[in-house]
Design goal:
Elements (H helix, E strand, L loop, with lengths): L2 H26 L1 E3 L3 H18 L13 H4 L9 H8 L7 E3 L1
Antiparallel strand pairs: 1-2
Helix pairs in contact: 1-2
Bound molecules: iron/sulfur cluster.
Iron/sulfur cluster (SF4) binds next to loops.
Length: about 100
């Protein structure tokens, strides 16, 4: 695949993830990070990990390589609700409490 085609594919995936995150945030009463630059970094990180490993693993946590264990790290991860409740946002600062 050419670099251009790869970029187009990655950008399409970023938009797909963004749409799902917006929908999820609305359902849960969260908002996405208003800092557009940070938001892009996280969304691109999720898209890259999906392309590389087949799942949208948390870009801010280390994968163990064990698929079963790493399930907890698939976004939205198993930890985000508690983090948002306690800290106001998830570890990656993707989702924020309203
Ligand atoms: S910390 Fe946030 S961005 Fe990372 S996986 Fe959890 S919900 Fe997704």
């Amino acid at each position: 695949m050419t670099e251009n085609a790869e970029n187009n594919e990655l950008n399409a995936l970023v938009e797909d993830i963004r749409a799902r995150c917006v929908e999820y945030a609305e359902k849960k009463g969260y908002v996405l990070n208003p800092d557009a630059k940070h938001l892009e970094t996280i969304l691109k990180g999720l898209a890259r990990l999906k392309t590389k490993y087949g799942e949208e693993y948390c870009p801010c946590r280390v994968r163990s390589g064990d698929k079963e264990k790493d399930k907890a790290n698939i976004c939205p991860c198993a930890f985000h609700e508690k983090e948002i409740e306690e800290d106001g946002c998830c570890h990656c600062q993707l989702f924020f409490r309203k």
